[in-house]
User: What shape does this take?
Amino acid sequence: MAQYFEVHPDNPQPRLLKQAVALLEGGGVLAVPTDSSYALVCHLDDKEAVDKLRRIRGVDDKHHLTLLCRDLSELANYARVDNKQYRLLKSATPGPYTFILEASKEVPRRVSHPQRKTIGLRVPGHKTLQELLVLHNGALLAATLIAPGETEPMNDPELIRARFEKLIAGVVDAGACPLEPTTVIDLTPMGTGGDPVVIRQGGGDVARLGL
Assistant: This one.
């Protein structure tokens, strides 16, 4: 049975978030709010938790999972970033953008793309998620919470609990999210002198990045 943590959207209660973090550290998968929609998250270094997240989400190892990072300095631990890429990242974070970058050796091979050796990285602007990342003291692996067989992400935490309560360890309820996907930008071409490629236009304004 999933635990349910109802937190204030602007001032989330640390006591409740610490309980949620304890579930993550125990190998649990959580449903959490982001600045796009709700997402499934788990501990990056827990293989069983990662496998569980993939099963719940209904995706295989070719599906790009995303690393949620507290800030750019943490993001740089998990990706190879040159000066040009860093300047673009700095102009876009935190916010509703997901960036595809070459994974560093800090990223377990099982969670990077098997052919490209890339990883999606994101610095979210959502207050509750930021506080959760701080208390967790590290990045979290994430996938948009889209139920198997559906095409739209879930946004109602009570419906999420009802549908997944036997599969996940907990739900962090900070109210509804914008329900608009992140803008996904592949920055890997920049490493060889190319331009960033917008893979999906979502909540993040590409004009803000000069694209």
Remarks:
- The chain has a mean pLDDT of 90.
- The chain has one domain: 3-209.
- The first strand starts at residue 3 and ends at 6.
